[in-house]
Queue: 4 jobs
Job 1
Amino acid sequence: MRQDLYQHHDYYLIDDLLTPEHKLIRETVRSYVKEKLSPIIEDYAQRAEFPKHIVKELGEIGAFGPSLPAEYGCGGLDEISYGIIMQELERCDSGIRSTASVQGSLVMYPIYKYGSEEQRKKYLPKLAKGELFGCFGLTEPNHGSNPAGMETNFKDKGDHYLLNGAKMWISNSPLADIAVVWAKNEQGKIRGLIVERGMEGFTTPTTHGKWSLRASITGELVFDNVKVPKENLLPNVEGLKGPLGCLSTARYGIAWGAIGAALDCYDTALRYAKERVQFGRPLAGFQLQQKKLAEMITEITKAQLLVWRLGTLKNEGKATPAQISMAKRNSCEIALNIARESRQILGGMGITGEYPIMRHLMNLETVITYEGTHDIHLLITGQDITGINAFQ
Amino acid sequence: MKILVPISKVPDTTSKIAFVDNNTKFSTDNVQFIMNPTDEWYALTKALELKEAQGGEVVVIHAGLADSEQVIRKALAIGADSAFRIDMDPTDAYAISVEIANHAKTGGYDLVITGKETIDYNSFEVGGMVAELLDWNAVALVSKLDIAGGKATATRDIEGGTETVEFSLPAVICATKDLAAARIPNMKGIMASRTKPLTVLAATGADKLTSIASYQTPEKAKECKYVSVDNVAELVRLLHEEAKVI
């Protein structure tokens, strides 16, 4: 891939709404991305390999659980900081952001929010440093958009729980040291369990052949009579609100993150359009190309304002899951459209690995689908404004 | 060992450069400012390496107005222990050097490490002037530095090669490439920087010996003219009549 020449685009001076600390955080993550990730990402994506050495690096810069409290080895930063970190990582690659999202929002967050003090102390500092790697098991082969129907279950065997079932589409699973797994108890209530690699009957087969998030590793979680110690149950939550609380946190990160992918596509297309000459003038001088570029920055600007406001609401503890759904849905939609339009501006060059656009485009097909599909988020908004459940 | 690192704030290299007020003032509109790279990448990180190896304290000092806080906080996030900001508009190298030297004189420092130059004005002045004002040893363009038993050995770049010099402390070093490995701050460092001391010092009002009369941007590169290989006569005519080089 070519040298990473990315420059930030801030058409409405939204930077004025950020603190100096936010800008320093952005500069920090961007420097890390430009120095360590941009030079290698295309190669790993082409080979469909996860650059596992980055887990430690992401831990060192503080990209795992940055908004969780410092007393557990986390960043203690605000929600806008978390969003900025996700955006800068996804500016590089949605798969890299996914790795950090899963570790921070889907593994560390539930342990912090629903776990015991012992569980927090045991797992959070190591997860924050990247010494432990985690994954999150909710989706099942027969239950995607309808997680309440899950079949994975556990039985109380006196001194342990006996876990059976299977999860799929699990980011990080083949390399994870621990999995936060959602399963039903004998009363049919959904509970969270921390399952550790090495427990007998627990396997994590890799999912092969993905055309998307190729630099992120995905797999299954299979539980065949796995004995889980009782102290590994997350004590402080019961029901679907447990996993949905995690998803709200992760979706919030995606709402910021997908704009990063959009910015990278726009930045690439704008630079290319100004340099590439056809019919004696730069592509950027043709009305049809200007329309594409002008619409892109308009949508990016709207999305930037939306997530900034969502971040301030989240800092105040006022962001609702439905508001988060709206932002996640909007960011994914505009990012995917911008990736497609950018790809067109680059013509044939847009399909090569020399530029990041096709990689973003393929990645975003996953981002618009996972953590609540595009349609499901629409129904969440629909239910919120009408009061009528249209899911089934 | 107590080390003082003067840091400057400079426009990011990707900034659009424009001048206002009849070309007498640099326009800061929409300009992103960063820590001067040689101060950050080589001077500050060398100071941190020395502290980590030998113990001590790293203090950064910046001459500038309140809007420089982001740059100072970054230095603290990377690992400096404390910071001073001399409250002044930093337009003249001599005035800045006097303020830094005044602070260094009474601060109990063993070493001052600056970057070799700032990337905006490239004037290469402050390090040398601070050393002169303090009457300390000065070594410029240092790419390697070892300190043991109060003695320092530095390798410095000279025309066509390097030179190794020995000198005693206290001293002023101007750092260049290879002196240390650049560091990226992390979130914990950024958090810690919130509570590290940043003291604002009033400027003593040293004389400014220079002022900017005007700025001028370089002429745009001229368009390239292509001449067919069969048309040497035309090439000669252009070189003679237009380029006026033959």
Job 2
Amino acid sequence: MQRIRRVLIANRGEIAARIIRSAQEMDILTVAVFSEADRNAPYVKLADLAIPLPGNSPKETYLNQGLIIDAAKISGCDAIHPGYGFLSENAEFASACGQAGIIFIGPTPRAIALMGSKIEAKRIMAEAGVPVLAGITVSDSDTLSENLTELADTEVGYPVLVKAAFGGGGRGMRVVHNPGDLLEAIEGARREAASAFGNGTVFLEHYVESPRHIEVQIFGDSHGQVVHLFERECSIQRRYQKIIEESPSPAVSEELRSELGASAVAAAKAIGYVGAGTVEFVMDNIGKYYFLEVNTRLQVEHPVTEMVTGLDLVRLQILVAEGMPLPDEVRSARINGHAIEVRIYAEDVLGGFLPSTGVIHHFHVPDLPGIRLDSGVKSGGEVSVHYDSMVAKVISHGKNRDEARRRLARALSETRMYGVANNVDLLLAILRESEFKAGAIDTGYLVRHTPADLVGTLRSSDTVDAHCIAAAIAVQARNRSESKVLGTISSGWRNVPNGHQTVTFKHDGTELVVRYRLSGDRVEFSIGDGELCRATIYSCAPDEVDFELGGIRRSATISRFAGRIYVADNTDVTTFTEVPRFQEHPALEAHGSLVAPMPGTVVRIAVDKGSAVSAGDTVVVLEAMKMEHSIKAPVSGIVQEIRVDLGQSVDIGLVLAIVEGPT
Amino acid sequence: MPVLKSTVDIRSEEYRNNRAAQLEVLRQLNEQLEIVRGGGGPKYAERHHMRGRLLVRERLELLLDPDSPFLELSSLAAWGTEFTVGASILTGIGVVSGVECVIIGHDPTVRGGSMNPITLKKNLRALEIARSNRLPVINLVESGGADLPTQSDLFVNAGKIFHDLTELSALAIPTIALVFGNSTAGGAYVPGMCDYAVLVDGHAKVFLGGPPLVKMATGEDAVDEALGGASMHSKVSGLSDFFAIDEYDCIRIGRQIVADLHWRKLGIGPTEPADPPLYDPDELLGVASSDFRVPVDPREVLARVTDGSRFSEYKALYGTSLVTGWTSIHGFPVGILANARGVLFSEEAKKATEFILLANQSDTPLIFLQNTTGYMVGTSYEQGGIIKDGAKMINAVTNSSVPHITINIGASFGAGNYGMSGRAYDPKFMFAWANAKLAVMGAQQLAGVLSIVARQAAESQHREFDAAADDARRTAIEEQIERESHSFFVSSKLYDDGVIDPRDTRTILGIALSAVHSQVVKGRRGFGVFRM
């Protein structure tokens, strides 16, 4: 038994903050590591000490075993917590920690290695009596032959799932329905797996259509005890990544729960598992389940288990790593109520879930009953291109599934994340959707329900209109308050009125022209071609408008960041951009014309007609007054015309060439 | 500072009568302003739009900073004349890129924006305001030039526009011409005389002589674009400093030019709290008298105009027919002179003189609220030196160098008009409430005086006095004077800068005070304050 006094967290973001919280509660000193991009991340400040890792790429930083072990040594750490991802399931790193005399908070290198190979894992599980799906391994070096497509049919059965043998998180996964597509899918999966995990070995198995993703939390100690902490259901996924998880699963009966638990414990015992782990299963609609894999680490979604069991899994990990036996409360754990977690991603949902990056100007999750926030960001923080785009998790707990669901939906409706596109609306829409409400979910949920349809249910046009006029009132309040002269005179005052003030906003790609006139506490306005309406203003400031429209009093908070206007009331946010009154017109001549700025002689023609140029490339060189003047392409595009010859004298204003950009 | 306490009974019959009378004259005013706003009427406005052009008021609104105020001047110019009310030109003070500017825009829907003698007067008054208050000038140019049938009343004086524009430039007051259309012959000198000119492609036409005139003069076959298009002037003659691809672009460039002036006002900004009055300005309609013979307590007006209804009265117990004191409006400290009971006696004249001297000592602008029937007449007053005392007041008003802003809130008759800083005394701005009257004396009084003079003349010549004819003449004269003392008539002749709604008094004073502080605000010093 060895007390841990100082722990290095070899991770970043919300999980680093999460681990720091439990460790500090145990009076263990915490040491963070951080890349250049993470220098201002909240977890770095939460930690008692922090050590910089030069560079940004995961390979240079959070995957850099040597640097991290050095960091642990120089800061006097006696343990390393790897979090999830990065080095958390790296047997080599776990061994290296041991060799350096540092406790690796996680299972043994052997267990990691065994489970890290999906093929080996499946063999062991099958031997231990855990239900498995048959599969085929295609190693890194195998040459792909046509008979593989036949083999896949007989051994596995189409549709076939191709996935990386090492690593997880859906990276490199592909579903193949048509045998003719198999080889290409394998090649693609290999490339992705090789770049993400350093090993291109892939694995083929039968793909269970519309399955539920059920997983069991297991915990083992070094005294041979293994328990399970019930199941989690993680069927709501986009692109094979979980976005909503819950515990318990609405599809798991008491009976099935013991069966699943027994299988998971059997699996864990088969490899002498120590620490926190997760046995993942795929379950069909009649409750038949198959082993998928064991995650030898703390899962992203561990909080739902914590919420229903009242346990602190990070604390337990540390206790087990110190060699302590699992405490009684773990062995006697029971499910109390229901918990649901949503993952907030910085991503453009409607743009195909593309990760989005940039500054999160404002981030707020309300502190409501039953709500827990595990966050890696705060207002003003940045989402960089270097790491995963998950920024926070919001977890709710309730007496039952419906209460947990309602609490979480309300919390999400009050959640604000400005500056970076995110999936909060999608999460909220799912929580309110009837199939989800009924628990009728599977991993095909987001194929059946398109994000656009889901998000479209959230907001009425009334809200958009009310927010639009609130934005107009706030914009005028700002214009007035920022005015250097006549700032105390009434907004838009005229002794001979000329009609309304106008402001144009863009919302969801549509331009909305708002015409308005203020007089005292009244505003008369119209939006687009809509009819003239009247509203009463109780108070207005650049950041807050309290008004009455159609007999209903509303209060809106207006924030502005990087050219966007966010109008929020308690439960809704609408985003606008103000369309400037004037457009800049950079070019005088026909678009893309290059004009001689002075009289001179053409001494060089740098490009040919029809060639591609980038903005700023030299097209023609003129000599005038013994000076050479490069005439550069104003836009990137194709040289449509060269209108001059070498040695030609040209007059000022003559068009020398025309470069046409893409239209 | 003491706070005024209003004693107006808003349920009294007098209040209700006053209010009804004010609302009626404001209805008439708005009717006229509706015509002003319509310019040449819907037919010409539509034609102008069809040509891809903006109306002058649309240009103005685009030019101004969003949500900023605009004080239109001389709106009733040419009211009651053969010319369209408004005089085919728009002038006023507005904020462009954070800078208060005088804006002068031709209205091309009224006879092509051509200039008649009243257009000229209004244009020159706007330039005068720009000069005396040091406000940059932006011309929105689209004018067919002189209204030729009126050339004899126009041509000679019209040269003053170019004179004034270049004089402004010499005073380092920037002048900008945004040329949207015709600017030919004499009009061509507007962009010519301004510091900056922006011409709109395809629309601006700036030349001394058009193709027909050139053909007649030299036989040359010339075309518009080559003679005076935006492209030519931007690339060849250099008259245009900026080439605008369309009207919006032109206005955008105009705004940028102003931003690039890095303008600094020479006067101080508001220094006092600018909290609104405690009493509703709407009540001014009931406070203002419907009959100038019934005096108005100016404290009731001030309670609805000054910051927080504050007013620190000077010499409250002396010369009580004139109220004087210190306050602030929209944060600008001011001195107030306001008639309380029409007539100015020697005491009032001496009190006013001292107060004006004090304001000059402290560089404080003065607001004159006129409601006067003139200086007192009669033997004892003449013997008491009313002429000398009135002269002191007029001397002080004339030689005071702090800005004066005058508002006629009821009556402005006789030398009272002079002593209370009337138009001839160059107040920086002068406005009149819609019901206010201005003349040498009241209509009835004037007709009566003429009748007495006629009777005396008949007597001295031993002619028989025709009482019936006198009655008829008396009625005719009374009607004439009544008409000529009407605020619309006075304003149409540019004797003030506009007829205003009493409820706008505070706002208009705020804008005017801010404008005067673009210039140095400095009182006259010399002998010190004479105790009269």
Job 3
Amino acid sequence: MGGTNGIEQGQTRRRIDPSGGISGREYDWPQGPPAAPLAIKVENLTAAYGEDVILKDVNFSVKRGEVVVIAGGSGCGKSTLLKHIIGLYPLAGGRVEINGVDMAAASDRELSVVRQGFGVLFQSGALFGSFNLLENVTLPLLDFTNLSRRAANLVGRAKLAMVNLAGYENHLPSELSGGMQKRAGLARAMALDPAILFFDEPSAGLDPITAAELDRLIIRINQAMGTTMVIVTHELASIYNIAHRVVMLDKTVKGIIAQGPPKELRDSSSDPRVSDFFHRRPAER
Amino acid sequence: MAQAGSGNFRLESSPGKSGDDLVLSISGCLDRSALEPALAEVRNLLQQNRPKRLILELGKLESLDSAGALALTMMQQEAQAMGAAAELKNLAGSAADLQSLLDPQELAKPPLIPEARKQDFISEVGQSFLEVMDDFKQMVTFLGDFAIASVRAIKNPKLVRWSDVALYMEKVGVDGLPIVGLISFLLGLIIAFMSSLQLASFGANIFVASLVAVAMVRELGPIMTAVLIAGRSGSAFAAEIGTMKVNEEVDALSVMGYNPVSFLAVPKVLASLIVIPLLTLYSDLLAILGGMMVGVLGLDLTVYSYVQQTVKSLDVSDVTSGLAKSIFFAVIIAGVGCQRGFTVRGGAQAVGSATTSAVVTAMFLIIVTDSIFAIVLHYLEW
């Protein structure tokens, strides 16, 4: 594996695990897979917009192949945390390591390599409106790999087929429904077979069936490709379906109040804020 | 047994137990770099051997990515297209999971709509004509809506959002002062300098002041101000309303019982009507100052004589005709900007197109209006 800081340039190859790798939803929590190195490490992260501190001293890590959901009530800083982890906003304090690379200290070249190693599905899909779906998906393949246009088109069509959008390659994003735009966004995020996928509210605004289909797709991708996933959501049904572990944020403490498998948090947490969230109880005033 | 391959993957072909079988043993890394060479190799072997069954032996495969999984699926499809059965052997674990993500039937689906092709010349002309007609219809509809909204506003001034009018007066007028002032000053300076090169040879330096004053106050002041404001504020109006259309904010106004034209367009047009004539006067003044700088510093004129000559050259009709034009220009800039914003459909690209169209259309209409003014004022001897 040649590359920078343990990441292979422009792609992530994976040894096939004859035992089938990660299987089922139940991770061997809290130990986790013993040999799995950390994909993401967040240390004392502080996020602020100007003087307004949103998160303070947040610490958690994500193992390779793990699906971690960042959950919490509205305005607790879920999306802010995600955007700080992926380096969209500068940190007010602390550090974030992705695949062993300190995002704040990395050079532009290193950052470019790290960023090619992860994909992001934004809340609205964030597809380029002037490109059709195939062009959206093949854009990183043409720019960051040595694939010919023909091969890139083949891979692009395959990615669209993976998200059940076969046949829609010539459609513009504006010609698709919200759910289809999200699936197309996922196809683009997966274009380079990234080792890590970040999702910002993947089920928001989707009908239950489409949301369940997207959940199933996330699980299948995680099982088949061993992709590490960090998902921001507050959809309880999705959390139970897809999460190995939940990191729960709270607005009042500006940080994490609980971590663990979703069912464990639901059934055994003594923190009323956690219990209220998982049982959909309105907060007492 | 034959061997082939490139990069990190190897392909070994051998006949199967039955003479009609072809066994291809793939080892190493089957990834995106192997996609095209592996497919070409398998196609070649299939054509040479014409087997009845293709067996892809994958026990020695070390790694597989999604492009490699696609290659395996396409190899099977190639064999089936030649009338041979195909099977994958010893594909286990997560590699099998990855392979199962690719449904061959899904992959074979043709595009639901054809790729956009360039139209022939005749079709393009026809399409452009239809677009112009549609554009005209939308413009007339907007004018009608705007006329109704204006009449309502005149009848009941309380309906006008005066706080928005003040805000846009600041954005269009106050914020536009530096650029309008700078450009006008430089324009006056250039006109004075260029004309002085000619007039100095006749000893007619003093007429530089007349030339700058008449040219700027009657023609260039209103036009330059209008062009600058069209670029600065007309485009901003189109982008603002266009983005609101994309975000369904305009629809929200409609269902809340507001008239979007009254709510969004009237304050912008009113603000422009007030500040653009004032900006035009400011532009005239700064241009005269620019000319004066050349006159005083380069042509040995005194400030007093330059001002005297300027005042002597201008009469009230020069100033009022410039102001009358600027009122029309204000309606054009704000009206076109808002109208283009309301036509936005789709996403960010449509907002960009509307913004460009707002500026280009406004400039075209400004020049057309100025030409009409020139002819009408000539016959009215104004």
Job 4
Amino acid sequence: MDATLHSLLTGFSVALQLDNVWYAFLGCLVGTLVGVLPGIGPLSGISILLPVTYGLNATQAVIMLAGIYYGSQYGGSTTSILMRIPGEASSVMTCVDGHAMAKKGRAGAALCIAAIGSWIAGTFGVVVLTVVAPPLATLAVRFGPPEYTALLILGLIFLAYMSSSSLIRTLLMACLGLLLGMIGIDNMTGHFRYSFDLAELGDGIGIVPVAVGLFGLGEILSTPSTNVVGEVIQPRLRDLLPNRQEWRDAAFPIARGTVLGFIIGIIPGSAHVISSFLSYALEKRVSKHPEEFGKGAVAGVAGPESANNSASTGAFVPMLALGIPTSPITAVLIGALMLHGISVGPTLVNDHPDVFWGFVASMYVGNLMLLALNLPLVSVFVTVLRIPYAYLYPLIIMFCVIGVYEVNNSVVDVWIMLIMGVLGYWLRKFNFDPAPLVLGLVISPILEQSLRQSLIMSNGDYLIFFQRPISLGLLGVAAGLLVLAALALIRARADWRTRLAEAEAGEAEA
Amino acid sequence: MTLRADHVAGAAFIAFGVLVIALSGDLPMGELSMPGSGFMPKILAGFTIAFGIVLIVRAGESRPFAEIEWNDAVHAAAVTVITGIAVYFFEMLGFLTTMVAMMFVLLVAIERRPLHYAALYSFGVVGLTYLTFVYVLKTPLVTGPFGF
């Protein structure tokens, strides 16, 4: 524990350097704007702004990008409460009671509760991350190829099981992503695979064109500007503080949402989305007045907002400790660090303590910054919300093009982005969630290499995965999840995932 | 039988899986003790085909294909074509020219915005972005034959 505290202090000495504070501030500000604007989610925001970090060192880059990530979680609540349009998916539940509170003249209180809840949840998440990540990384150093293979397979199965769309759809998307990850030179044999004589494809398809295409451009193609209309409720600054009763109503939901969100955040999948839905369901269940939900219940804002922020931080645990992305956003962050020559994995904490601890400490600073930013600047964000979408989306397309081109100075990447945009549009039409595709793309090289290394190690014997206790345990959990999913299929009974999907669809339509 | 969304999606994934296998013809599978470069892609293509079949079998749960709304397809196609043209000329004409033209065309042709607003906005926003990237962020952007 002493060593952790000492390392954390070192991290603060890095995070509190003036330039790092500036990049944390910039990340939080841009992230909040990204969250506020409908049509750009955190993933597209991070992907589009990735090239801006090229001139920075790895620590500054990850501090800024993480700021964008958790800033967007904060910012998403603003549009939800003031316009009833979720700035991003995890804010869908906040729309319901947040906007109802706003219509009752309590917009300021709703925004304040969302901000305070997010701050408490974010800070709690960072504290747990500080304590949990280093020992987990120490354990993960003992992982060999079979353990990594089992862990990645478990991650994919978990993702499919937790997904609110169907298991088959998620697995199909993951397969597509894994296949896209096979494009380029095979690291173990040097064969060119599916590169069609294009030298640019030799290094494979990058995560940035795929993520920007699927989530940035795909979202724009699916959102005609005529469909983006909404009336913004202007909160009065003097009403920003909740009254005593509202504080009381918010306290326990914030606490429950925080813990629930963090636990779900560690699990692969769209954790921040799932956590907010589960938190809303939990609050409704434990409430003495469930009939108030949908009509401006404070708990309906406090719980989900705390949960999605806590989940965002929770997702950093497997990323920092194991080098495994549990969401497309952490996958892009891993990609960003790799662009700066930093290999993310169990050795990160020892090989690059300044990056690891600087990043962790910057999250404490960033959370405080967001609290200071979100409330006083709410009128500025409201002004941004008044920019017509017809003017906004051409700007976003321009940033998509610059963002993707600047990664490798390659126009082929921009074409890939365009193709992925069309694919993203098509996938949305057929109710496929593109997130597992991005995740599959990122883990594809690691999964293939670890699987092939395991088979070489065992001279082609698949039993190697069952002879080592850690991989056996991980595969056991994966098998258990598959059995649970199969049981639900056989009984044709709606389990909690189906109900979640229905709630998600219902709220999105409302 | 009603054609459903998952019939079409499943068929597309099966076709994709078959295409991957066809394109993997020259990639060696290797042996279990030394898997080749075609090992994983072919397994994954197999899974894609299998999941595609399951999707078709369970297509009854999905909505009819005819019910999918395509009223935004014209907008999506127009945006894609205009962006595609801009991408084609991006390296030839440079960032400033292509992006100003792309924004202007998007605003005028698709969004039916007044010409002077569209021109002012396109020049202003693209110019500001150019200055920010080149002079503030020190990130050079593609230049065209005119030097910008």
